[in-house]
Structures are given as C-alpha cells and as structure tokens.
Amino acid sequence: MISLGPLAFAAPWALSALIALPLLWMLLRATPPAPRSVVFAPIRLLQRLARTPESPQTTPWWLVALRLFLAAIIILALARPVWQPDTGAGGDEPLLVIIDDGWTSAAAWPSVQAEARSRLEGARADGRPAALIFTAPSPRPVDAPRFGDAREALSRLDAHQPRAWAPDRAEAAERVSAALEQSGAPARLETLWISDGVSGGEGDRALSRAAYQHGPVRVVTPQPGTGALGLAAIEAEPDGFAAVIRRADSRGELPVSVTALGADGRALARAQAVFAAGASAVRAEARLPLDMRNRITRVVIDGEASAGAVQVMGDRWRRPRIGLLQAEGGGEDGQPLLSDLHYARQALAGISELVTGDLDRVLEAEPAGLVIVDAANAQDPRIAAFLEAGGLVVRFAGPRMAVRGGDLIPAPLREGGRLFGGAMAWDAPQPVAAFADDTPFAGLSVSEEVRVTRQVLAEPGPALDARVWARLEDGTPLVTADRRGNGWLVLFHVTAGPDWSSLPLSGLYPAMLERVLALAGGAQAQTPSIEGGAWRLERMLDGAGALTDARGDADPIPADAFTEARAGARTPPGIYTLGAASAALNVMRPGDELAPLARDLPGASYETRGEARERRLTGVLLALALIILAADVLIALALSGRLPRVPLRSASTGAAMLLAAGLAMQGEALADDAEHALEVRFAYVMTGDARIDSISRAGLAGISRESRRRSAVEPGAPAGVNIETDEILFFPLVYWPLTPDAPALSEAAAARVSAYLQSGGMIVFDTRDGRDAASSRQPHPGLLRTLERLNVPPLQRIPSDHVLGKTFYLLSDYPGRFAGSEVWVEANPDGSARDGVSGLIIGSADWASAWAVDEAGRPLAPVEGGERQREMANRFGVNLAMYALTGNYKEDQVHVPAILQRLGRR
C-alpha cells in the first residue's frame, strides 16, 4: 500500500496501466465513427465536396476524453483506493476484534457497531481472516471463536445487542487465550479492542496481555465527553429525592438531568445538575410530595439509553405512610427508652414515613397502615372501618391484651398469656423457629440470640394454622394474621419493646416489620410458588435500560445473599419477588464509581473512536464507471443515427456530468446498496417496541440459520426496516409483527407496500395473539388499521393442498409459539400477477418467537408445545423462505409424469 496524503492504494501496481492512456487517445482519435445515411441530392452534394478539404474524419474530442476518463476510473478502481487509510493495520495478519458490549457501551452502541463494521469490512476487502469477541459474559456458554471469513464476524456484529451488565475482561482474556490455542489459530495477529473507556480493574491488563503476546494491540476509546453515565443511587429526602450520577470521563463541564417515572411511564419529577470540570460525580435533587414519591417505579438519566442509567424501585423505596398510635394520655411514663412506643418508632423510622399521635391526627394524614402498641386504644370503631376499607393494622401484645383481647385480633386468645424461664414458668425461654416458605417472612435469617420469655397464646383450632406466619421452636404462634375486608390484621404475640422478648433488640425486628408493611395497599400475603426462600426474577432490564419480560433461565438469588448480589449474566438486573415483597437489583449500587480506562496497558496503543475512519472507494468508482459506460453507449448510438435525432453534442455531455456528480454525492451509499442488493436478506418491520423488534430480528436470524443448514439458500443477516421511510423492494420476504395499537399507514408508505406486493414481494403479517385471534369475535385492530389503505385481494384459509405446505417439507399445519391458529392466504393467486404465489400471509402464531435463537443457536423463547412444535415451526420457516424465493415450482411438478410420457421415457 502506498499513500498520497489522505489517499492510499492497496494495489498500486494497477496504476501502471495509466501510461497506456496516451496510446488509447491516439487509437480512439484515429477510429472514425460509423457512416450516416443522408438523402441523395446530387448538385448540393457536389457543391459540398468541392468546398470541403480532404482529411480523415475522427471521433469527437469530447467523446474521446469521456472514454479516457472511463478507462482512468477503472484503473483507479483496480488499484483499490482507500480514503484516510488505517495506518495502524497489521498488513496481511488476521484481525481479532474485541468489543466491550456491557451496559457502558449501550448508549453509544450504533457508533461502536459502525467502528467495528468499518474495520471488519476492511479485513474482508483485504482477504484477512477475522474473529470477534465480546467482553460481557453471555447467559449461556459460548464456544471459543475461530478465525475465518470476515463476513461471519460481520453477521454476528449486526445481530448482537449490548448486555445489561458490566464487561468481565478477565473472563474475556480466557476466551482470547482459548481461541488462540485452538488448532489452526494464527501465531501472529492484529488486535483491535473497541473499549467503553471505563476501567474494569485487573481484568483490563489480563485482556491486553493475552492479546499482546500474539501481536500489536490497538485500543479504541470513546471521544471526549461521550463516555458512559451511570446512576449510582437514589436517596429519599424528606421533601423529595436525590440522584447520584457518575461518569468516567471527567473532562469538561457536562449538564445532566434525571426523570422519575411512574408505573404507567409518565414523568413524575425531573432534576437537573451540571458536572464540574474534573468532577466524576454530581448530585441532582428534586422536590416531590410523599404520595407522588411512592409512585416512582424508575429513575432514568435523560438521553442515556443504558441499563446503568436506570434505577428501578422495589418495596424498600415505596415507604408507606404509617400511623403509630400513642398510648392513652399521650405519655410514655417518663421513661421513653423503656416504652413500647420508642422501640416501634425506631424500627419503623427507616422503612416508612411515620406519623405519631392520637387516632384523630393519624387518620388525618391518610396513612396506609396503623401500628398499635399494647398501651394504645385499639377498640375505636374507626380502626375497624379503616381495616375493612383496605388498610393494614399491626398490633403488639402486652399485659392489657393478655387480660382482655377484644375483637381486633386475628385468632381467639387464651387469657393470661404464657411465661417462660421463671420460678413459676413451665419452660425455658424459646427461640424463634425458621420461617415457612409460604409466609411474608420467607428467606429471613433467624437470629439465634432472639429469645421469647412471655407471649399471648392463641386458642388452637382448625383455622389457626392458616393464620400463623411465625412460630417459636415449640410450635406456638409468634405472629398471626387474618384478612379483614380489603385489609390485613397482623398481631405480634409479644410486646413492641423488650419486656417480653429480645426481638426488638435484634436486626430481625425491622426486617419483619418491613415485610409486613409490604402489605400496605392490599398486597397478597402469600405466594405458594416460592421455593427455598429465594428471590426470583419477575421483570428484567435489557441493555438499553427498558424493562422487559424475564428470562426463564435466570438464576434465583437466595434471600440471605440478595443484598450482596450483583447484576450479571445469570442474575440480570430488574425486579425480583419473594412472596408479597419485591426488590430491585440494579446495575450500579451506592458507592460504585466509574474510573477511566488505564493508559498504560501492556503493549497497547490508543486511538479515538470515529477519527479518520477509512473508506474504501473501489465500489464507488466501479459504480461510476458503469454509469459512464451506459452514457457512452447512448452517445455512440445517437452519433451513429440509431436514436432519434436530438442535439446530443451538448446534452449528452451534460447528462454524463450530472450523473457523475450525483454519484459523487452519494458514493459510498450507492456501493453499499449495490452490495446488499446482491445478497439474499429477509427483513422485519420495526414496531418501536424494543422487545418485539429484538425477537423479530432473532427470529429471522434463526430461520436464516436453519435455511443455510438445511437447504442451498444462504440468507444474510436480517434487516430491520421502518415501513414509513425505508425501501423494501430488495427483500424477498418481510415479516411484519402487529400490535393492537399499530398505527395506520401513511399514503406514501401504503403506496410503497402496494408497489412491493405488485412487484412480487411477500409480507407475513403476524398478530402474535395465538388462539385468542380465533376465539375473538372482533378482528385484530392493528391489522385492520395497517391494511385499510392497501388494495388487499380476497383472502381464504390456507387450503390443505397449498404449495406452502410442500415447498421443502410436507406440512399440514403451520405452528409458531402457539399451535392451532389459522393462516390466511390470497384466495385467487392466479389473478395476482405473481405466477400463482400469494403475496400476503396472515396468521397469529407468533412465528418469530419460535424461530428466535441466540448467537449459539439456542432458543430464546418458550414454545407451548415443546421442542416438537419448535421443530415444526422451523420447518414452516424453511418452507416460507423457499416459497418466497422459488414461488410455485413445487406446484409445477405435478406435470412431470405427463412430460416424461410425451418424451417417451415412461
């Protein structure tokens, strides 16, 4: 490769052909144009011949110049010119691309993909083997990558999405070493590490060292001011909340804002702050009433689409307003540190917004629950009305209750209570037994130091066991509860202070109260599916920070380990539940920091992402040469009189120059479109819902994979299209998932879709609602709005002998994630001008979910009929691909016997 400033040539020897241009000039000038026919006029012809000097006629100079320009362009294209070449490239050595695909790269993922694509396309053009490694752990085991055609790495890159957890570069270093230890692995290579710019600890050096042992390592970092932002903590304030935001790149000032969102996605509050130059953290505060603050489900950094820029909220955030009833008379007997009220207040202060006072004052604050110690009056009828209306009432026992229980108790009590460990006691003080898995206390660790010396006893009865949430080791109830109306009544059979037990002196006391307060607002008390006291994933964050359905293979987190758990491949960030309680596992935790990537990694050189990205001009020049060649043919036909006579001497030259100028403006885009037009690719319509779009992309990638494996069809990576703006003409099949709120098509989009169908394209509409579509009396609203502006031909249920059931496999039904749903095709395909092929296929089986696979080929979504149904869905997908590409050739096979008979071969 030689360079001339920003322009270089990968095959400079081809430029030697430029010396032949003068010879070509003389040859073209000496060749006369073809003779023209003229009307015979003897006298006028003789006059003209007398005046015209005798000299040979030559080709016009401007046409010769155009042809020389065409030859020069072809020579330059053969020299493989590169604009702003990558001077650090490793020549002909294999290329290893390492990409940080954790949450720290999610916000800038398009630029990361563009950087990697540019380098891999350069390796493909140079014929260099390539391999691709991502640093974030995969949820499933992934084989070590192998060096091969760069096209395979490009396909993986296009299908990949960032993870919702941090990279693990130490683990990535092990995969790099494993890849280079395989048989056939190169001894020398060039490594390009596209980094997120955030330090990963000692794993950074391990990764750089593993690659540097085999060749140079170039680290590509984000541009200044574009590094990742993380939301480290959300802190409750008396009048609102505060958000702690961190960044790794502390250069320059940077304004940021955060938004608090409710369960319906509406913004409840917004806070703004500015990073000072050199500061890596900033605090943004917002004022918000308690009732509004308790409605917050997420807080996000505006404009930062990553899982680390989101904090989801669990029960601990939703601090309910709790009323704590004072003892009658309002006093604490002059000894507040020994009163039940003091211990209840201390236990509730960190998990609720407390309102302390008499019943009138407490009810004025509209609390979600009431906590009543033994000395307070619990017989007021307004308490029973509060309970029936859906409130939570928590009572503690004491001497008064032991004498007179009253009606506001979950189960009848024996009079007098029970005393342990004294001279008149029956037994020694009792410890607390382990909590059952079907109670709100499931998973809490029981302190061995807690002892109960006295309690009130519940009368045994057939209904008592269902109301017991906690017991002592001898089996007697410690906490009982009962549903009253829409509310919950909970009784601790000991005092709120340490008079009857050491429970109020332990950390178990506030933990049990926190679980009970989760019922404020009508939550269910029990979840029978809990096993082993473990938190289970209910909703998960994807790499872009959106809450999606939970993966079925996520590991449960033991309750005693949840506070120390970190988000990872097996424990994704999101909302976890245990019984009635919910808790949030976020990517960043309080105290986490983002440090910049070290600049002294072993053997590494550094460059900035997006700077001097090389552009290969061969495709642009060849496309320009084709256009000039077409213009030359037209000009030659016109000069020879084979086209209608027009003043071509000026018009043809101007047209050629305009075409050249237009190509120069669109250059690389034309070359890319030409390249993709030659590759078979399926497309899916993007809905705007990240979860649906990712399933559509993975579904078409899965069916492309199966088509390559089972047939001669070799589709490329699927493409997502915006039906309102993108051209779909080059795709043989378009998968269109429909949602109930799908908007109607614009006039331009409807015209584009109609033209696509008339030109032989095929669209698969999938409403994804399974048997609900067949049982519903109303048509799918999204399907109706989408089709209302299209010229839809008459439809019919797919007949049993339809060619779609025999293009590759013989099929009698067409299942997806759901089985038994109806499939509709055109009723009269012979009149559709597409050689008997139906351009519309409409169903509700959610085919993409059944086809969807990850990078290792493992299914991503469950199928209701198991693996047999998934196999049948894959067979239908292969049939669909063959049907879109080959039409009704299978139908024509019915004529084979007659043809053979006429040929005399039968």
TrEMBL record:
<feature type="transmembrane region" description="Helical">
    <location>
        <begin position="619"/>
        <end position="639"/>
    </location>
</feature>
<feature type="transmembrane region" description="Helical">
    <location>
        <begin position="61"/>
        <end position="79"/>
    </location>
</feature>
<feature type="transmembrane region" description="Helical">
    <location>
        <begin position="7"/>
        <end position="28"/>
    </location>
</feature>
<dbReference type="Pfam" id="PF13709">
    <property type="entry name" value="DUF4159"/>
</dbReference>
<dbReference type="Pfam" id="PF07584">
    <property type="entry name" value="BatA"/>
</dbReference>
<dbReference type="InterPro" id="IPR025297">
    <property type="entry name" value="DUF4159"/>
</dbReference>
<protein>
    <submittedName>
        <fullName>DUF4159 domain-containing protein</fullName>
    </submittedName>
</protein>
<keyword id="KW-1133">Transmembrane helix</keyword>
<dbReference type="InterPro" id="IPR024163">
    <property type="entry name" value="Aerotolerance_reg_N"/>
</dbReference>
<dbReference type="InterPro" id="IPR011933">
    <property type="entry name" value="Double_TM_dom"/>
</dbReference>
<keyword id="KW-0472">Membrane</keyword>
<feature type="domain" description="Aerotolerance regulator N-terminal">
    <location>
        <begin position="8"/>
        <end position="81"/>
    </location>
</feature>
<feature type="domain" description="DUF4159">
    <location>
        <begin position="681"/>
        <end position="885"/>
    </location>
</feature>
<keyword id="KW-0812">Transmembrane</keyword>
